[in-house]
Structures are given as C-alpha cells and as structure tokens.
Sequence to fold (746 residues):
Amino acid sequence: MNLTDLPTPTLLLDHHRMTANIARMQAIADRLGVKLRPHLKTLKSAQAAEALIAAGASGITVSTLKEADYFNQRGISDITYAVGMVPARLADAASLMAAGADLKIMTDNLEVARAIAKAASQNGVKYKLLIEIDCGDNRGGLQADSAELLQIAEVIADSCASLQGLLTHAGHSYGVDNTAAFEQIAMQERDAVVMAAERLRAAGHEVETISVGSTPTALFARDLSGVTELRAGVYTVFDMDQQSRGVCETDEIALSVLSSVIGHNKAAGKILLDAGGLALSKDRSADRFRPEVGYGQLCDADGRIIPNLFVTSVSQEHGHVRVRDDSDYARFPVGSLLRVLPVHACMTAAAYDYFNVLENGQVSDRWDRVNGW
Amino acid sequence: MNLTDLPTPTLLLDHHRMTANIARMQAIADRLGVKLRPHLKTLKSAQAAEALIAAGASGITVSTLKEADYFNQRGISDITYAVGMVPARLADAASLMAAGADLKIMTDNLEVARAIAKAASQNGVKYKLLIEIDCGDNRGGLQADSAELLQIAEVIADSCASLQGLLTHAGHSYGVDNTAAFEQIAMQERDAVVMAAERLRAAGHEVETISVGSTPTALFARDLSGVTELRAGVYTVFDMDQQSRGVCETDEIALSVLSSVIGHNKAAGKILLDAGGLALSKDRSADRFRPEVGYGQLCDADGRIIPNLFVTSVSQEHGHVRVRDDSDYARFPVGSLLRVLPVHACMTAAAYDYFNVLENGQVSDRWDRVNGW
Fold:
C-alpha cells in the first residue's frame, strides 16, 4: 500500500529505523553487562515487543495493568509494572499471575507494602515486589538512605510475597543536553539504587534485581557496576524532544504523523494541517533546548526533513505551520501530504490505535496498540 | 455503581451539570433568534447529541468525517463538517450523503472549490458548501473582503454543488478574560461573516446559512442580527481553561477524571496520581490567566473543590500534586480517590473511549465516544 492510500492524520512507523535503534540499545546493554527490559509505554504493541525480545531483551516494562494483560495474552509474560501499586489493583495483579504472567509490581510506600503482604498471605499470592528509589527525578521513589526502605523490606520478608529488588528512573536526564550531564545523571541513577541495595543486603535481604533506566542515561552510561538491568522506551523510535537535547539525530526518529494540508491562510502567513493537538499531542518538551520545534518538525511525504518548517501552534484538529515565504503555498498545495516528526513519541502515538509499518517507503504491515487504562 | 468500583483513571460526566449547560446555551440561541448547531468535538457521543437535539439544537457540527459517519449511523444526520475539505475526502463525503447524511462541507480555497465543483458535476453529487471566513482568529478562513470569496461562489454556482453559506469561528475569544472583550469579539465574528454574506448577495448568490460560534462569544453575544446559526461545543461541559477567563464557574464543569493516589514523595513535597499527561492531556491553556491551575484542579471523590490543590506537573502516567503542607499526606493516602477538573475538556476526553455518566453521585450509564480519524 502507498502512503497516498492512507487516511490522514495517521501514524507511521519506519521499520528500518526502529530495528536499528533496538539493535543499538541492545548492544549497549550487552557491553555494560546488564539485561535490557524495554519499556513498552512508547510502542504499546505486541509486534514491537516481539522484535525487542528477538533482539535480546530479557522481558518488558509496562505502565498499566491493561498493558500487562495485553502483552501476557500475546505470550510476553516477563513483565515489570513500573508505576506505583495501589491496593485496589492487587486482585488484578493476582489474576495476571494466575494467567501466567511473571509480574513484578512496585511501591515506595509502607502502607501499600503492608497491604501487599496482607493480600499475599491471605490469598497465597507470591507477589514480587520492587521498591522504587528516587535518584533525583523527584517523581516517585524513596530516598536511598530512607528508613522506610528497610521497613518495607521487613514487611515483605515477613509475608508470602517476595522482595524482587529495586528500581529507579532518572527522569531528570530529560532536563539536560550535553554528554557530561547525561553521564553524571547516569552515575547518580546507578549510585542511588546500588547504595539502597547495599543497605538492604546489609540488613540480610536478597536483592536480585537492581534496575535503572531512561533513554538518555542508558545511551550515555559508562559503567553500570552493581546494576542488573536497564529499562528505556523512547529510544525505540526517538522524537524531537530527544533530538533537541542531542540524544538522537532526526534520521533516527522512526515515528511520524502523516498529515494533509487542509488550508492556506495567506493573510496570517500559515499553512494548516489536519494534524492538530489531538493528532500530535500538546507536548512542548522540545521547548527548553529547541523552542523553534514547537509541536513538530515537518518532512515531506517521503520523510525528508524540510528545513525550518515546524508546526508552530495547534488547535484541536489544526496544525498551524508558519510559512518561510510565499513560495511555500505553491510547494505545499491543499491536499498534499506532509509528515510531522513528533515532539514526544509516547504522547503522540497514544492518539492512534495502530501503526502503519513502513518498509522501503511502502506500508508493509499494521501493528496494533493497547491504549487507555 | 459506585465510584469506588471504577478502574482509574477514568472519565466522569456529571449529567445534571451537562443538562443545565445545554439548556442555558439553547436559551441564549433562542433569545438571539438563531439556530443552535452544537459542536460535538468535545463530547463525540451519540447520547450527548441526542440530549442536545432534544433540548432544541437544529443539527450538529463535527470535526472529522469519522465523527460524521458515527453520528449519521446513529440517526443524527444534519451535520456540518467544520474542518477544511480536501479533495481526497470528497468520495467519503459523497458516501455519507448517499447514506442519508445532510452533510455540509467547508473550504476557504479556490482550488478545492474547483475540485468540489468538478466532483459534483462528474458524479452528480450535490455537495453543500460553506465558505470559511477568518474573523480575526488567524486559523482558517478568507478575509471577508477577499477576492477569492466571490471566485469560490462563482465556481460553485456554475456546478452541481450548491453554496450553503458562510461559517466563521472566533477562536481568538480564548485569548481574553473580560466581558467587554468577549462582547467585542462576538461583534467582530458577526460583522465579518455578515459583511461577507452581503458581498455574496450583492453578486447574486443566495446565502442560506450564516454561522458563527465559539463558547465565549456565544455566551456573551448581545446581538446576532444577520446571523442564522450559532456553533459552540465546550460549553456542554466547560473546563478550567474556560473558568480561568471567567466564562464559567467551577461548579458548572461537568467533566472530571477520577484518579487514584499512587504515591507520596515526601522529600519532594508531592502526591502522585495515576492521571498524568495521557489521562489529562498536556494542554496548558489556563496558563495565561490562572497559571496556578497547571494541568487541573483537584476535587474530592464527590466533586467538591479542594482549595489550592492542583496537578502541578505531569509525566506520561503520573500527575504530580504539590502538597499545601504535610497534613495533605494523611488527608490523601495512597489508594484514595481524587477527581481532576481538566484544563481543556476536548483534549482530556479524547483519551477515553467512554464516559461514566453520573447522576446523584452514582454511575447511572456509560456513553460511548468516537475518537481518532
């Protein structure tokens, strides 16, 4: 199928670029001597997970139990659910385990640990728990030197559940744009979780899994001594947010939105696309280092970058593109096709139920996605 | 069903508030002597459209042909597709008309008008065309005094298609926050399209429909002489974006996201919710007039506002709530439920396949939605 046969806006996945990105990260994990457990929050697709595992991944990471169920039903059962557990979801987690999932759950909260211990003991469910550590991101996680770390481990040790290990995520690596800073945050990420592991081991607990990861730190880590696994997700397709801080090149970005030109507002100096806030998301993550990117980089229908042409603003169903000069109206007539390299791949992809998989410029396949909760 | 039986995050629709919002706008349209053609881009639900039509709406507005098809299949056939037409969609539009839809399409482009005329004549399809006018929003539309306006009308007059009329949207009403400014933009909106209609009539064209609308201008318009219909959408549920500029009160907001507390990061002074960027959208429209709102206003599970508690930042699956003081941790334990009043209802609702319809605090129904393209 040709691109001109697709309705717009629609999501394109460049299979060649994705495969290269997957191979590159697997080689990094292999070199660093750690397992790779890719985060499927970006691709949310069983076909993508199969490609990752075929390339050497040891299992997957997910951000919802709906994702966990989707992947487990499709034969991908080694799953870490890397969002804080709540007691109301323990029954669903138990059902997933009964359905064959080797599920790891996570918390940073003593009360939740007690609820897990209680549910494990009452129902004989051997929940596997990761304790979340905050390595500087200030999202979830305990400080590595906190008292609660040992308290949670003790509560779990006294139950039918088991302590699987520790997990951290250096989300603050998204706030910097140079090699030295990425390397430093990768060390912070490693050091926080290794220190926490040492405290647990000193208190007599086994710590099997010591898990770190974010795309920038994974790509720039030099030494992961003490760490057992790496998680990352957006590296599979990259995006303009990653490009804006030097984590990837535009020709590594494997995801794009195919869009139609639907209008010219010559009085306002704009081309209008049918890819607006819903089709691209309103994520503005590239603003810090490349504010000109706006809501995405324009490419022609074949994926070649169009220099200095960006989605400068969006409304719900309209992408507004400030023209460089009046010749752009003739170059991009109403009805013509353009591609947008998205700012944040995870956010953009979530607006679509499937990927149009491209090989050699043709749509070779359609991969499904699991969205929602 | 009780709220505690719902998985989170999930979308709640307060039926009582929605009904009151619908009645209020219908009364305004009746008073101004115009038809009301609500924009279903916000609710995207057949049950909602039925409620609007039962209250007096003359038809509906949509933003995709997928929406048009969804509504037409459910018996709501008087539809204006208010996004610029492209030639590649003319066959789909013809199919919808063959399936019974009284579809109105729109352009502001002479080349597209020629394509419509050609397709109409070749295939005997009586497309009904609205010409889009830009009244100051700088999105789509011709200037009311432009030469192309008459050229498009002539091209259509010479074809099997028919000129239905004119349409404009004062999206720039979202950029102001006081009655005088809303009233002034409502006059601009009216004057632009009425002037364009006078030019068309002077040139011998019939102009049946003269359509204006945006929620702020619809609510504040004092006189719509010359206008035949009003379009607006977000007034059905409102949101914090509208509240931030004084267009509604928080107790008129009919849409909220039910969310679970999934963590406390006491070192960072945060409560974490399971409603993040995907569940709320990354829309920051309230920033201009109420930057403290961030990504949403927190309410308790029963919908009562919690003063000064907002979703201050988001990552993909996490909403970060800066606590007011340490007592908030005990007040909102992990596992407890909170509601978020969204910043931009249209963007937030698009992350969900259905509404949980609330009556008297109970889930009384589930309404489906049509998302995507």
